[in-house]
Amino acid sequence: MANPPVPDIIYTKVDEAPQIASASLLPIIRHFASAAGVSVGTKDISLAGRIIAAFPEKLTAAQRQPDDLAELGELVKTPVANVIKLPNISASVPQLVAALKELQSQGYDIPDYPEDPQSDEEKAIRARFDAIKGSAVNPVLREGNSDRRAAIAVKNYAKANPHSMGKWSPDSKTCVTTMASGDFRSNETSATLTAAQAGAARIEHVAKDGTVTVLKDKLSYPAGTVVDATFMSATALETFLAEQIEASKRMGVLFSIHLKATMMKVSDPIIFGHAVRQFLKPVFDKHGAALAAAGVDPNSGLGALMDRVAEMPNGAAIAKDIADAMADRPPMYMVNSDRGLTNLHVPSDVIIDASIPALIRAGGKGYGPDGKAADTNCVIPDSSYASVYDEAIRYFKATGALDPSTAGTVQNVGLMAQKAEEYGSHPTTFLIPADGTVRMVLANGDVLHRHTVQAGDIWRAASTRQAAIEDWVKLAISRQKAEGCQAVFWLDETRAHDAQLIAYVKPMLAAAGVADKFIILAPREATRLSLETIRRGENSIAISGNVLRDYLTDLFPILELGTSAKMLSIVKLMNGGGMFETGAGGSAPKHVQQLVEENHLRWDSLGEFCALGESLKFLAEAKGNPKARVLGDAVDVATQGVLDNNHSPLPKVGQTDNRDSHFYFALYWARALAAQTVDADLAGHFAPVAKALTENEATILAELAAGQGKPADLGGYYHTDDAKVAAVMRPSATFAKIIG
Ligand SMILES: NC(=O)C1=CN([C@@H]2O[C@H](COP(=O)(O)OP(=O)(O)OC[C@H]3O[C@@H](n4cnc5c(N)ncnc54)[C@H](OP(=O)(O)O)[C@@H]3O)[C@@H](O)[C@H]2O)C=CC1
Ligand SMILES: O=C(O)CCC(=O)C(=O)O
Ligand SMILES: [Mg+2]
C-alpha cells in the first residue's frame, strides 16, 4: 500500500501548557487552512506518546502508537517538511517516572523504570527509557541552523508597552561563580578532522593496569568535522561546590545552582547530584550507605530522596538529620517557597536558560525559603559560558536595569544543525569508572584526544559537522545583509573548540567579501558590547554556537520583551524543508497547575501565531499555493491585532486568558481575510465568518469565561484525556459552531 501523502503542515502534539493551548488553537488553524486547501496533520512527540511508542509489546491494539518522532526525524531531512514545532518536555528521571506511573494507572502495561538495572532484560529496558530521557526530540528534528528574533511588530509592541523590570542596586551581592580549573572549559581539546582522519572512531578507557574498555564504538565522522573532547574533574567540582556553599553563607545570599540537566542529560544530572551530596554532606557522611542501599540516587534530586527516606525504617531520624543539615546551610533559592520546593528538589526545575534571565529581569533577585526576594549566588560550575551571565550582572549593577521602552534588540543565528556541539554530546558522555586515561582513536590509528582522568570524572566528546558550520556562516551573512546591523560571532579564540570554528569563519567571510561587516568576540566581551548596543537603541546579531543560541534566545527576549514566548524561531532545514518553532521558551509547567486549580490558562500562543504565519508563507513558496500566502499574510495582521488591542493572556484568573486570545486571533484573522483583495474566493469565504465572530463577541467571551475560577479536569497530566481537555479549552458552543 502506498504511504498516505504528507500533510502540507505538521503541527506537533506536545506536553503541558502548549499542548493544552493546542486543543483550542488547532481547530481554528485547521478551519482556516482548509479554505485554502491546506492540510494540517499532527505528530505526537509528547513524553507520554514517546513512552507508549517505545513499549508496544504488552499494549492493546487501541493503546499502541507509532513512533512519530522517528517518522518526523526522517521527514525533516526531506524538502517537503513543513513543521510547526511546539516546546516539549525534555524529561528528567523524576518526570519520566511520573509520566510512566500515570500511564500505568491508566491501564498501560509498560515496565517500571529500572533504577539499578542488573539483568540483561532490565538493562535493555533501561536503554529504551534512556533514549526517551532528556532532550530527545529537539536534536532529532533540528536538521538546520537557527534564526531566532523578535518580529518587528512584537518588538514595537514591547517598546510601547514595556514590562516591569526589577531595580538594580550597585551594592547588590548577587553574583555568578564558576570553576577556575578542572572544568569542561579548562580541559577542552579540539581538532578538525583531515581527509586521512575521517571515518570510524572509537572512545576507549585505559585503566591504570592497562585494561582497555571500549566506551563507544562505531562513531563515524566525515572530513572537516570539528571534534572536541573534555572532562569535568569530580574532585575539583566537589571542592568548588563546598566552597560556594560556604561562601553563600558568609556573604548572606541565597545558594543556587543553574544547569541544563534536560539537554545535557548525561553530564548535568551528575553535576546536580554532586550539589545535592555536598549540600547534605553531613547526612551522606552519616547515612550514605543506608541511603544507597535504599536506592537513593542524588542525581534525581532532594524530592526523590525525601520520598525514599520516608519509606525507610529509620526515616524519621534521617529526615531530622536532613532538616538539621539544611538549617546549618545558606538559605536556598526556591522553585516554590509555598510548597517548600528548593533548587535541589528536581533536576529539571531550574534550567539555566530560563532561570538566570528571570533573576536578572527581577534586578538580580531570587526567592528564598521565606518567600522573600534576596540576592543570590548563581553557581554555574562549568566556566564555558558563565561569563555571559557574570558580565550581564556586572553591567546592570553598574548601569541599572535595561529600559525596554528604548532598548534595541539582539537577534540570534545559532549553529545547531546535525546535533552540533555540546547539545549533541550525550551518546559520547561517560561517567568514568576508574582512574586511567580516556582516548579517542581514529580509523587511521591516530589518537585524536587523550585525557588523564579519575573515577567519577565526567568525560565527553562533541562534534560539529563542516556542512552545518558552513550553512551557519551563510545564514549569518544573509541575516546581516537583511538587517544591515552590527553582527558579532560569539567565539573565544582562546577556547579550543572556538579556535577551530574561527578557522572556518574567517576565510568564508573573506571569500564572500564581508569580513568588515562582522566582529569576532569572546562571550564576555560580546555580552558587554551587545548590552551597550541595545541600551543605545541599536540592534545586534549574535552569531553563536548551540549552547549560547539556547541561552541568548531566552536572555535577550526576557530582558527586551519580558518573555521569550513571543520569539520568531525559524529553522531553515538543510535539505530544503522548514521547521518553525513556537517561541524560545518551554512548556511552562506552572501554567498547567493554575489551569487545574482555577481554570485560567496564562500560556501565550504568540509564538504559535508567528510560527504559523511563517509556515504558511513557506508553504506558498514551496508548493506554489498563493492562497497559503494570503492566509499567512492575514496571520501577521491578526497577530498584530492581538498585540495592539491587548488581547494577550494575563496572569490572573478573570483576566484575558489563552482561549480569549485565540478568539481574538480568529476574529482578526477572519477580518483580514475578508478585507484583502488578492483572493476574492477567500475574501468571500471569510466575510460571513468575520461577521459571525464580530456579532457574537460578547456571547463567546461569556461562554469562555463561564467555567473560570473553578477547578478543571484534564483527565491526566502527561497523558490527558482529549475529550476532557477539549471540553475545558473549547467551552464556547457559539465559537465552535462558527469555526466548524
Ligand atoms: N523547545 C523546547 O522544546 C523547549 C522545551 N523546554 C522544556 O520546557 C519545560 C519547562 O522549562 P523551563 O525552563 O521551566 O522554561 P519555560 O519557558 O517553560 O518556563 C519558564 C517561564 O517562562 C514563562 N513562559 C514560557 N513560555 C511562555 C508562554 N508561551 N506564555 C507565557 N509564559 C511563558 C513562564 O513564566 P511566567 O508565567 O512566570 O511569566 C514560565 O514559568 C522543561 O520540561 C523543558 O525541558 C524548555 C525550553 C525549550
Ligand atoms: O530541548 C530542550 O531540552 C530545550 C531546548 C531549548 O531550551 C531551546 O532550544 O531553547
Ligand atoms: Mg532554551
The pLDDT mean sits at 97
Count of distinct strands: 24
Q: Rg from C-alpha positions?
A: 26 Å
Main β-sheet, in a few words? Answer: 10 strands, mixed
Distinct ligands, ions and cofactors found in the model: NADPH dihydro-nicotinamide-adenine-dinucleotide phosphate, 2-oxoglutaric acid, magnesium ion
Q: What would the principal axes of the Cα set say about the shape? A: globular
- The order of strands across the largest sheet is 2-1-3-24-23-4-15-22-20-21
How many domains? The number is 3
Count of alpha and pi helical runs: 27
Given as residue ranges, the uncertain stretches (5+ residues, pLDDT < 50) are none
> What is the oligomer described by this structure?
single chain
Distance between termini?
Answer: 32 Å
**β-strand amount:** 15-25%
Structural class: alpha/beta
Helix content: 40-55%
